[in-house]
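Renewal narrative, Specific Aim 1. Our central claim is that a sequence can be written position by position from structural information alone. The example that follows is taken directly from our test logs and has not been curated for this report. It begins with the structure tokens describing the chain, in the order in which they were read.
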């Protein structure tokens, strides 16, 4: 019934999106249909013990998560789907050529999203090329996991099995968070909250692993510096663009390349050197930057520090913080304010 309902809702969005929605709907149903019961997978002699152990770990992480927040356990991750490739979907973010701002697409009941996901990489590349020809900047990346926000019983995907136990726990906690808290039309906040809670839950789960916590803490300090550096650089680039408004796509790339060569890369090299990260391993230098990839970073990372500061300010433990967010979101919806829930939280 849930499957039929989801397809029906998707078809309500209009003819312009029909082919996309039908393809993605069929791709999602294919994932569901190919799901195998965990009990059968664990008994299959063709499946390695390493994979079986990770499936058992996922079950443990799931139980821990719902017990921790005292929520009723959902049917999510009750089956396993083995993918044909390494990624389950391919995400395409599109940005205007004259500003760092993603093109948003709206869907009924779920709100607007600053990206489109494609089960077929060929379709993602086709869409990417189409938008390039319409003078947009584009960025595509593979996705290992995502949430249907409770519309369907999400599967354990074979793409999960490449993660070590720490990253796997963080991933599962991240995706499960989407099942208990979701703000309509606010992907930025939803992803930043899931990132935050996923990470904090992972730290609590492995609290007795002192060696890991020490190493991860040092790594996180470096990551924090990189995130802060990127946010500042992107904001500097926005100012740069406002002073040199490009007239077309070619002009925008000329501006971008000037900023990258004169400002971004020299400072990024110094930052990587300071953090003792080799250039070939430094995210700042490895990533191909344009308006779309800058926009993608801001979607997933910009509000991370604000969320942590909000929790510290109120001296909440992680459980109290979730209750606080739920309470404030209910208040926000009743007030029917014009600004986003993020803006509402920032004023508290």
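The sequence written for that structure reads:
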């Amino acid at each position: 019934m849930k499957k039929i309902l989801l397809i029906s809702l998707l078809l309500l969005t209009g003819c312009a999106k029909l082919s996309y929605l039908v393809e993605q709907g069929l791709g999602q149903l294919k994932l569901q249909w190919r799901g195998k019961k965990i009990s059968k997978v664990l008994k299959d002699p063709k499946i390695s013990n390493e994979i079986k152990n990770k499936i058992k770990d996922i079950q443990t992480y799931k139980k821990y998560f719902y017990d921790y927040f005292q929520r009723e356990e959902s049917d999510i991750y009750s089956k396993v789907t083995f993918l044909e490739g390494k990624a389950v979907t391919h995400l395409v973010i599109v940005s205007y050529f004259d500003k760092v701002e993603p093109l948003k697409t709206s869907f009924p009941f779920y709100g607007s999203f600053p990206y489109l996901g494609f089960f077929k990489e060929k379709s993602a590349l086709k869409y990417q090329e189409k938008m390039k020809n319409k003078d947009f900047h584009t960025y595509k990346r593979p996705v290992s996991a995502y949430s249907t926000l409770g519309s369907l019983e999400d599967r354990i995907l074979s793409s999960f099995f490449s993660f070590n136990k720490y990253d796997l726990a963080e991933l599962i906690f991240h995706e499960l968070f989407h099942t208990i808290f979701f703000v309509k039309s606010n992907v930025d906040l939803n992803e930043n909250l899931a990132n935050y809670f996923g990470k904090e839950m992972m730290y609590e789960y492995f609290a007795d692993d002192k060696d890991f916590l020490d190493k991860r803490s040092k790594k996180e300090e470096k990551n924090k510096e990189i995130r802060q550096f990127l946010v500042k650089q992107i904001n500097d680039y926005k100012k740069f663009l406002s002073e040199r408004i490009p007239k077309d796509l070619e002009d925008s790339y000329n501006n971008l390349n000037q900023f990258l060569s004169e400002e971004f890369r020299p400072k990024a090299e110094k930052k990587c050197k300071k953090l003792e990260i080799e250039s070939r391993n430094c995210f700042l230098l490895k990533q191909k930057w344009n308006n779309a990839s800058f926009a993608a970073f801001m979607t997933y990372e910009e509000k991370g520090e604000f969320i942590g500061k909000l929790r510290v300010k109120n001296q909440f433990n992680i459980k109290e913080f979730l209750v606080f967010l739920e309470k404030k979101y209910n208040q926000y919806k009743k007030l029917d304010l014009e600004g986003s829930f993020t803006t509402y939280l920032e004023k508290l």
